[in-house]
């Protein structure tokens, strides 16, 4: 009955919580069976469905029957839960980073404004300094910009420093709230001894400000931050996630990443990690086919989409 209840909950999609049934199916000699693996687009959980047919000679005075068993077990806890920052912890891009970039351009009288749609395209480039450099290389550099490559690097660095200061002021005023369920999931992980880190292409000071001011100092002191230029190659390169696993002393295959973008997903999967996508304002239409699960957000009860138990279920699913 427990197995059938699990199947029913999947069919009705009434719950996104991990499936915990571990009831062993009775084995019968000489049975012919076949299996198929289904991928649930909502839950992102691989469910093994085994349908067993009893040979006709074994059906004494009975009609044809078949048994379906499906389960996704809870496994050991993740060694680490790794969060992207922008778009995952806080939906910062449209009304945070973009505004801060534009305010910086205005202060420096560069005659540049990034509108909502343009900034969405620029987000395909990881890193703020890289984003500005690519934009100016494509459109032309401002008249006030220097001419040599080295001087331009310093110019971009100075713009990014000022942009970070303006962005941090927004965070310190708590004008941008945490996304639903973020604090809950982090608390669950820390309570169970799961290591928590934030891995972002954004400036380390900006990421630290988000963690400290919005998650609070008690949580912040337990969260490791990997951000900015800590690695030479940014997402979609897996370097930052590889660094996080090595620094934390954990196996990448035992880590679960929470991302919101295609480039973040690519980085996590290239590092050999499980990845859950929580779509954000700019990434809702991106292709997340390779994700282990996709949700609109993490969520708090009664609108919770997933919890630490679901993260556990991604590490190992089987039928026994």
List descriptors.
320 residues, alpha/beta, six-stranded parallel β-sheet, three-stranded antiparallel β-sheet, 38% helix, disordered N terminus
Structure write-up:
The structure is a single chain. By secondary structure, the protein is α/β, with parallel strands linked by helices. The chain contains eleven helices and nine strands. It has helices at residues 2-12, 93-107, 116-122, 128-139, 149-172, 182-191, 204-215, 217-220, 239-248, 262-270, 308-315, and strands at 32-39, 46-53, 66-71, 80-83, 195-200, 223-227, 255-259, 274-278, 293-295. The chain has a six-stranded parallel β-sheet with strand order 6-5-4-7-8-9, with helices on both faces. It has a three-stranded antiparallel β-sheet with strand order 1-2-3. Helix 2 packs across helix 5, helix 4 (128-139) packs across helix 5 (149-172) and helix 5 (149-172) packs parallel to helix 7 (204-215). The chain starts with a helix and ends in a 5-residue tail after the last helix.
């Amino acid at each position: 009955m427990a197995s059938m209840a699990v199947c029913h909950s999947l069919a009705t999609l009434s719950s996104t919580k991990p499936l915990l049934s571990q009831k062993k199916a009775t084995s019968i000699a000489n049975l012919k069976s076949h299996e198929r693996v289904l991928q649930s687009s909502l839950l992102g959980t691989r469910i093994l469905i085994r349908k067993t047919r009893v040979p006709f000679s074994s059906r004494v005075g009975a009609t044809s029957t078949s048994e379906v068993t499906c389960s996704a077990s809870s496994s050991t806890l993740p060694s680490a839960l790794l969060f992207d920052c922008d778009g995952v912890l806080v939906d910062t891009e449209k009304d945070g980073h973009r505004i801060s970039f534009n305010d910086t351009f205005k202060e420096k009288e560069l005659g540049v404004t990034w509108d909502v749609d343009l900034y969405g395209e620029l987000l395909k480039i990881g890193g703020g300094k890289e984003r500005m450099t690519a934009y100016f290389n494509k459109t032309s550099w401002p008249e006030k910009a220097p001419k040599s490559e080295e001087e331009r690097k310093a110019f971009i660095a100075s713009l990014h420093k000022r942009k970070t200061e303006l962005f941090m002021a927004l965070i310190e005023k708590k004008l941008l709230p945490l996304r639903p369920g973020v604090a809950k999931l982090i608390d669950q992980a820390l309570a169970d001894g799961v290591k928590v880190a934030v891995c972002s292409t954004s400036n380390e000071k900006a990421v630290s400000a988000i963690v400290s001011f919005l998650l609070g100092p008690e949580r912040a002191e337990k969260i490791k931050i990997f951000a900015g230029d800590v690695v030479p190659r940014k997402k979609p390169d897996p370097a930052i996630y590889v660094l996080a696993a090595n620094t934390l002393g954990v196996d990448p295959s035992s880590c679960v990443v929470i991302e919101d973008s295609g480039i973040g997903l690519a980085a996590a999967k290239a590092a050999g990690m499980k990845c859950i996508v929580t779509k954000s304002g700019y990434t809702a239409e991106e292709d997340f086919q390779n994700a282990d699960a996709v949700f609109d957000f993490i969520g708090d009860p009664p609108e919770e989409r997933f919890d630490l138990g679901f993260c556990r279920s991604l590490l190992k699913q089987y039928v026994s």
